[in-house]
Specification:
TSUP, mainly alpha, about 250 residues, single chain
């Protein structure tokens, strides 16, 4: 019962964070490891559990879904799908002991990316030379999608930075696309993980229900949140503590 409560609370808060600022993986992944799942299974299960939360957040942002660059919306969907599949396959073929050793570094990378998100976005915008061409847009979206299929942590800020680099200006459009792509990646990678037998279903269902509710609540209230900086520092602190624990374990 304690395990189920921990998973439900982690899922609900993660759903809110994913919709508003990102960083939900910093809660769901360690929660799944805490209840006894191996890191590879925890990563796969966390990805599947996040899927309905991403979908509900994407639905809440459905009116903001549009492309501002040379890569149109169907192309974004196709590129994200192929990249997500490639990343998922890469995880499936990664030996468990190798992934266990890589996890702390992935968490560290995700924490640094998330904590430095505003600076990263400003840097991306300063380097943007207007709208990027089609090859650059496809390459950028595919690269981030591969990362997302392999490890979900920090995906949101990487997508926002990528769209800034490609010349996007409307934050609501970027948020809508971020949630849509995250949803696509979680769907295609989860199909691969289910086929490979990596999903532990009972914890996945608990987190999925909680994260769906949290995702819709977060997306609905995101425009009302004034102090985004405080929220970002909270998520970064959670990520830093999680990273330290995995390095020491």
């Amino acid at each position: 019962m304690i395990d189920m409560v921990v998973l439900a609370v982690a899922g609900f808060v993660a759903g809110i964070l994913n919709a508003v600022a990102g960083g939900g993986t910093f809660l769901t992944f360690p929660a799944l490891v805490w209840v006894g799942l191996p890191p590879v299974a925890a990563n796969a299960t966390s990805t599947l559990a996040a899927m309905p939360g991403y979908a509900s957040a994407a639905w809440a942002f459905r009116h903001d879904l549009r492309s501002e660059g040379s890569l149109r919306l169907p192309g974004i969907i196709a590129t994200a799908t192929l990249g997500g599949v490639a990343g998922a396959i890469l995880l499936i073929v990664t030996p468990s002991d190798v992934f266990t050793g890589v996890v702390p570094w992935l968490l560290l990378l995700a924490t640094v990316l998330f904590g430095g998100g505003p600076l990263l976005l400003k840097l991306a915008q300063s380097r943007g030379l207007g709208q990027a061409g089609l090859p650059a847009s496809v390459f950028t979206v595919a690269l981030v999608a591969i990362y997302g299929g392999y490890f979900n942590g920090g995906l949101g800020i990487m997508l926002l930075a990528a769209f800034s680099l490609l010349g996007y200006q409307n934050l609501h459009t970027m948020n809508g696309l971020k949630n849509m792509i995250s949803s696509i990646i979680s769907v295609v990678s989860s199909i691969a993980f289910v086929s490979a037998g990596l999903i532990v279903w009972k914890p996945a269902l608990v987190i999925a229900v909680a994260i769906t509710i949290g995702g819709y609540v977060g997306a609905s209230q995101s425009r009302r949140i004034k102090n985004q900086a405080l929220l970002r520092w909270f998520v970064t602190a959670v990520g830093a503590v999680t990273t330290l624990i995995f390095f020491l374990s």
